[in-house]
Amino acid sequence: MRSLFWRVFASFWLAIALTAGFSLLLGRVINQDAWLLNQHPALKGLAEAWTQRYENDGPDASQQLLEARKREYRVDVQVLDENGISIIRGTFPPRAAAYEARHPNEKRLPWRRLSVEYTSPKSGETYLLIYRLPLPAVIEWQRQSLLWPISAISIALLVVILVSLWLSLSITRPLNRLRGAVHDLGQTAYQQSSLAHLAKRRDELGTLAADFNRMGERVQGLISSQRQLLRDVSHELRSPLARLRIAIALSERAEPAEQKKYWPRLTQECDRLEALISEILTLARLDAESGSVQTIALRQMLEKLQEDARIEAPVQHLRVECEPNLPLVGWADMIQSALENLLRNALRFNPPEQAIELLARKEGDWICLSVRDHGPGVAEEHLARLHEPFFRAPDQSANGHGLGLAIARRAAERHGGQLILANHKDGGFIATLRLPLKPSASA
């Protein structure tokens, strides 16, 4: 992965290295005496060369070396011993020496005076060499010698600027795209394609964009489902309300003696309306915070469901099979609500002479809770839509409100599992809650 961390890290140390290099280079440039002594061709290595010539060939040979340097570079040299006495004649004219003595301020002199002490490694003697370079020659050489460090500094600064610009753009552009995506999401106009290119990046920003894409897709899906749910709820509420309104209108027109026969119908419609609102609230409650998870006593839950089914439908028989010590962890209320809705559907369509099967078993890292009836089943083309809110197969449109399976599916998704609906191979219908051992709490 091309980590953004390494980009920032490398850029930071590159800037430090270049800054250190600039500092050293500028320090050498600012220290003009050392720069001239080490870099000027007339002075570079002259002290060492003169000492060797003097100690090996004598004063005359060393004097000739200084005169040759003067002819080539116009540099005057004096050589003094440790006591300040001239060792050789040198090339500095006496009149120039007298002029310099009358003007102790070096800024008013027409030459640049430099001095260096050199100790001979052969004899151990220390010599003081005093150089005098004409100012025009020094200025010309400085102009030429500073050209390459200035060029190097300019190139290095350009590199730092380009690297900083690249690093800034590589961070700010994706952040601007993410900001725009956040704005679009807030306006419910988020388009997943707006971050598709950014999500392909192989760094932290690409990972963030991919996660934001998934979040945006989920949020948009929730918004769409909520809008669809509101439309479906408004549609479903119209029917019982319309029937109530008609029954009330008929009772108002009827004679006092006949009004009593409309009360059972009004009560029935109120009960239907209450049941519908209760299922809607149950479905909405599944998206709310459900508290901490807990270990579920699954066998006790199934036995309680068996007892409730016996009271609700005495003519039906429910057979419960549960593997011992199933380690199911989750939200007990959600799972119980889901199983109640699956059982209610099974009780509605199962023939009394055959038992409904409620099974709990472990399959790898999953717990499967299945409810099977022996009814007519569902046409294959409708299986995929059975878990949608308010959807009812054409041959079952008169039964329920179409929310039971939606509640069961949402409970499974809240645990990170799924609801599997199918026609059983031996006849009837089977609904299976496939739940992980530990819920992922996927929204």
Distinct helical segment count: 13
Q: How much helicity do the residues have?
A: 40-55%
Q: Beta-strand level of the residues, as a percent range?
A: 5-15%
Ends: how far apart? 29 Å
Rg result = 48 Å
- The SSE order reads HHHHEHEEHHHHEHEEHEEHHEE
What is the mean predicted local confidence, pLDDT? 80
Please report the total strand number as a whole number. 10
Spans with pLDDT under 50 lasting ≥5 residues? none
For the largest sheet, list the strands in their spatial order. Answer: 5-7-8-10-9
Task: Give a short account of the largest sheet.
Answer: 5 strands, mixed
What class do helices, strands and sheet pairing give? alpha+beta
Give the overall shape. Answer: rod-shaped
Give short descriptive properties of this protein.
single chain; 443 residues; alpha+beta; five-stranded mixed sheet; three-stranded antiparallel sheet; 10 strands; 55% helix; rod-shaped
What does this structure look like?
This protein is of the alpha+beta class. The chain is built from 13 helices and ten strands. It has helices spanning 4-30, 32-39, 46-57, 59-73, 94-102, 135-145, 147-186, 204-253, 263-285, 298-312, 332-349, 380-383, 404-414, and strands at residues 76-80, 111-119, 126-134, 294-295, 318-322, 329-330, 356-363, 366-373, 418-423, 429-436. The protein has a five-stranded mixed β-sheet. It has a three-stranded antiparallel β-sheet with strand order 1-3-2. Strand 9 (418-423) and strand 10 (429-436) form a beta hairpin. The longest helix has 50 residues, at 204-253. The radius of gyration is 48 Å and the shape is rod-shaped. The mean pLDDT is 80.
